[in-house]
Specification:
- By secondary structure, the protein is mainly alpha-helical.
- Helices cover 80% and strands 0% of the residues.
- The radius of gyration is 23 Å and the shape is globular.
């Protein structure tokens, strides 16, 4: 590709974004919907699983944590393949009729990002349990009560976990293309459309989708940084107030 072709493609991509091209908006909206639903389902299950693993101790826990850490590196195409086999007509879940549908993509992405939520939640709440767990146990808090109280105390950290999960989901391509089929108007999302349009030579649309995807990722990173900065300011303000009270109370 020469310089003029590249520049022309970038200009055309910018026009598509500025004009809110209907095809572009449809693909972006579908991608955001799939990833948002998958993140919600994964967070609903992953926070509970991670919270439970953070506060319980049982034989074989180390093996479970090792398997959980290993699942973080699962290739997305492998998750897609397993989901395909389960949802195919001959598979155990074939009666659902979900293969090559919106639901299949949501299910595959949920399975893919669930370990991310569980692992990050477990680490966050286990660190908090080391600081406050003994106090909660002395007050009679049971396993689930302790996990829920710790989750509430670390809710801002869990918000960053949710944002990171959404970022992982929306940038995924392998699983959704296997179970979704990349069908135009039905299961085509940003990542699969970028790969397809690039192979077809439709660079303006591919670049436009790439720009939108990059903008989403940048917005997520900015949101994560904002949540962390806001929490640090709040924690700092609480610490300063506590220090002032100790000084005033000193004889």
């Amino acid at each position: 590709m020469d310089d003029n072709t590249f520049i022309d493609s970038v200009v055309a991509a910018g026009r598509l974004v500025a004009a809110c091209d209907p095809v572009l908006l449809a693909i972006v909206g579908r991608s955001l919907a799939v990833s948002a639903l998958a993140s919600v389902f994964a967070c609903a299950v992953g926070v509970l699983l991670g919270g439970w693993l953070a506060v319980v101790r049982f034989a074989g826990r180390g093996i479970v944590l090792t398997l959980l850490s290993t699942s973080l590196a699962l290739p997305s195409v492998v998750v897609g393949l397993v989901a395909y086999l389960l949802l195919s007509r001959a598979g155990p879940l074939g009666f659902l009729g979900w293969l090559f549908s919106f639901k299949a993509m949501v299910a595959a992405q949920t399975v893919l990002v669930l370990p991310v939520v569980a692992a990050l939640t477990r680490q966050t709440l286990e660190d908090a349990d080391r600081l406050h767990g003994e106090q909660l146990r002395s007050l009679g808090a049971g396993t689930w009560t302790r996990a829920l109280l710790l989750a509430w105390d670390e809710r801002y950290a869990l918000v960053t976990v949710a944002l990171a999960t959404f970022g992982r989901a929306i940038s995924e391509v392998g699983a959704v293309v296997v179970v979704g089929g990349n069908i135009d108007g039905y299961t085509r999302v940003m990542t699969t459309a970028i790969a397809l349009e690039t192979s077809k030579g439709d660079l303006p649309l591919a670049l436009a989708l790439g720009l939108v995807l990059l903008g989403v990722v940048l917005a997520l990173n900015a949101a994560i940084a904002s949540v962390r900065g806001w929490r640090e300011r709040v924690d700092g303000g609480i610490a300063d107030a506590a220090g002032a009270l100790r000084v005033e109370a000193a004889p």
